[in-house]
């Protein structure tokens, strides 16, 4: 079964085809690629963009979306094996995924880490559980990576620069402050897609503790070896921003403190000055700024940065609709 769990699982040619199809969908929104088809959107966490864009996207292609929120409007689910299910969970993923697969043609899953034990969370067991038991393709709607966001960002950059060839562009993925320790998913994904596209990538973060998980650093290293890009880690704000073509911001919790956020908070609080502001953006090569959204203004980025014509975050958010339609159409076309 071909799923869309991570861009790293798909070839560059497959990703390019999806981006090309997304561009077509942006020109002409309606189609019949999902006519008579359905997608279950399973949300364990809140969403504005993902839910809306998948629901609208399925509609625009003639399909239907069913939203389920286990533990709220659907039964709580157990994901471990051999468990005596005498707690909250009313049913097991083995039945949930198989039953949904009898009703629908695609399943989307959003399941953030629990933020208690990274060794457990990095197994991505909710997404992997759906993928294991589902008889239909599964789409990652953000777990410990966010591949749909990657494609939306890639398309926004290709549109901005007027080319699908982004090699040689300097891409800065900058950590920013947030009052809470957040998921590393979008940071993992930004690093993955930027290196895949052959850009010269700088991961800017306050201290070595904020470097991302070795799996994603490893993907990035493998990607630059293949794509001809480059990868460096920096803790120096001004040199990282200098000459950047793209600044992508995200906040995330430091993995060594996973589950011990009280210990991380005073460290994180020292780096509020990582906010993306006009002074830093002036160091760039007239670079563009983006963020996956939602974004706390004047915490992660200033009003002036968000309201600048160099901010492409709204374009990126729009592109979620187009790329997800392309992913759904591709998976349906190739489904057995
Ligand atoms: N960027 C993103 O996934 O937005 P939502 O959390 O609103 O879906």
Provide structural commentary.
With 336 residues, this protein is an alpha/beta fold. It is built from 13 helices and eleven strands. It has a five-stranded parallel β-sheet with strand order 9-8-7-10-11. Strands 2-1-5-6 form a four-stranded parallel β-sheet, sandwiched between helices. A two-stranded parallel sheet has the order 3-4. The radius of gyration is 20 Å and the shape is globular. 48% of the residues are buried.
User: Structural class of the secondary structure composition?
Assistant: alpha/beta
Q: How is the largest sheet built, in terms of strand order? A: 9-8-7-10-11
Low-confidence stretches: none
Distance linking N and C termini:
8 Å
Ions, cofactors and other ligands present here are: phosphoric acid mono(formamide)ester
Major beta sheet summary:
5 strands, parallel
In a nutshell, what does this entry contain?
With 336 residues, the protein is α/β, with parallel strands linked by helices. The chain is built from 13 helices and eleven strands.
Chart the SSEs and their pairings.
Elements: H1 12-27, E1 38-43, H2 49-60, E2 64-68, E3 77-78, E4 91-92, H3 93-103, E5 106-110, H4 118-121, H5 125-133, E6 138-140, H6 147-161, E7 170-175, H7 185-196, E8 200-204, H8 214-227, E9 230-234, H9 237-241, E10 246-250, H10 261-269, H11 278-281, E11 288-290, H12 303-307, H13 313-334
Parallel strand pairs: 1-2, 1-5, 3-4, 5-6, 7-8, 7-10, 8-9, 10-11
Helix pairs in contact: 1-13, 2-13, 3-5, 6-7, 6-13, 7-8
The structure holds phosphoric acid mono(formamide)ester.
């Amino acid at each position: 079964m071909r799923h869309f769990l991570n861009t790293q699982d798909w070839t560059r040619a497959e990703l390019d085809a999806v981006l090309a199809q997304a561009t077509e969908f942006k020109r002409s929104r309606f189609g019949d690629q999902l006519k008579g088809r359905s997608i279950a959107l399973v949300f364990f966490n809140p969403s504005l963009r993902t839910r809306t864009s998948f629901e609208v996207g399925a509609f625009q292609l003639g399909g239907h979306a069913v939203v389920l929120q286990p533990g709220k409007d659907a039964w709580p689910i157990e994901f471990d094996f051999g468990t005596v299910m005498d707690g909250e969970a009313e049913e097991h993923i083995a039945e949930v995924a198989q039953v949904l697969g009898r009703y629908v043609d695609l399943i989307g899953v959003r399941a953030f880490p629990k933020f208690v034990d990274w060794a457990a969370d990095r197994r991505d067991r909710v997404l992997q559980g759906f993928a294991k038991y589902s008889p239909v393709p599964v789409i990652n709607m953000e777990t410990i990576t966010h591949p749909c966001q990657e494609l939306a960002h890639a398309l926004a950059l290709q549109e901005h620069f007027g080319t699908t060839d982004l090699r040689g562009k300097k891409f800065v993925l900058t950590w920013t402050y947030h009052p809470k320790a957040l998921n590393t998913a979008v940071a993992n994904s930004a690093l993955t897609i930027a290196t895949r596209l052959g850009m010269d990538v700088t991961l800017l973060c306050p201290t070595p503790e904020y470097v991302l998980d070795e799996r994603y650093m490893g993907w990035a290293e493998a990607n630059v070896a293949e794509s001809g890009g480059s990868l460096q880690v920096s803790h120096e704000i001004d040199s990282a921003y200098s000459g950047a073509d793209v600044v992508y911001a995200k906040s995330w919790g430091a993995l060594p403190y996973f589950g011990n956020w009280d210990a991380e908070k005073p460290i994180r609080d020292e780096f509020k000055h990582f906010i993306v502001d006009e002074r830093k953006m002036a160091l760039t090569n007239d670079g563009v700024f983006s963020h996956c959204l939602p974004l706390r203004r004047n915490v992660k980025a200033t009003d002036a940065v968000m309201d600048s014509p160099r901010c492409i975050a709204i374009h990126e958010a729009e592109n979620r609709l187009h790329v997800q339609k392309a992913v759904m159409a591709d998976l349906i076309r190739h489904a057995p």
